[in-house]
Amino acid sequence: MTVQPEFELYSFWRTSATYRVRVALNLKGLTARERDVDLIKGEQRDPEFLKLSPMGAIPALVEPGHPAMTQSTAILEYLDEIAPEPPLLPADPRGRARVRSIAAMLAADTHPLITPRVRGYLTKEAGFDDAAWKRWQIQWFTTGLQAVEARLAAEAETGDFCHGDRVTLADICLASIPAVMKIFAIEVADIPTIDRIMARCEAIEAFAAADPYRQAGAPSR
Ligand SMILES: N[C@@H](CCC(=O)N[C@@H](CS)C(=O)NCC(=O)O)C(=O)O
């Protein structure tokens, strides 16, 4: 790829899924003009935005002349194909399946349970108060991270990162969970392999620059 497409990224400072895209863009040396969708104000439900992303979810990556691309993992794989260096997937089919599997445990089975639309339903329709919502968040963050920890600790393919000694899509999806847990002041104990890998990721500027608190619109800590 010689000239990168003119990307617009519909985003919000504190979102886990957009964090993943920011990390991938940073790793690839790509840029995107960010357009704020304020999830606290509910702008994801605006009719104009729903035309771009009918799920009412960010990120959405827009290139001139094409429909918006949604789903962070699909966007990550797209970026990896148009800008192959550094690769976000291993070269072998079994390795790629393992990385995608770990990524899905986090991006598909963990993160969606704690999104604003789920919170909205549970608090408006299912009688959840703030304490019940907090217990829900802790339950699903803990379930997801402990399951990933069990795999990472047991499987020989784990290295400095989730798969070997290079950053992959699995590390990006993994880092996207603690990145938002700190916003909700939630911690999960007894995940030493994840803690070790997260320390490696945080030392990489592409990850550090994607931190929610370094984004436009973020409150100061
Ligand atoms: N599976 C989607 C999840 C997208 C998603 O749920 N994004 C959240 C922010 S992290 C969102 O926009 N939520 C809006 C809502 O739940 O109302 C992805 O990975 O892109």
From TrEMBL:
GO terms for biological process: glutathione metabolic process; L-phenylalanine catabolic process. InterPro entries: Glutathione-S-Trfase_C-like (IPR010987), Glutathione-S-Trfase_C_sf (IPR036282), Glutathione_S-Trfase (IPR040079), Glutathione_S-Trfase_N (IPR004045), GST_C (IPR004046), GST_Zeta (IPR005955), Thioredoxin-like_sf (IPR036249). Residues 92-220 form the GST C-terminal domain. Signal peptide: none annotated. It comes from the Bacteria. Residues 5-87 form the GST N-terminal domain. One of its GO terms (cellular component) is cytoplasm. Keywords: Isomerase. Pfam families: GST_C, GST_N. GO terms for molecular function: glutathione transferase activity; maleylacetoacetate isomerase activity. Belongs to the GST superfamily. Zeta family. This is Maleylacetoacetate isomerase. It comes from Aureimonas pseudogalii.
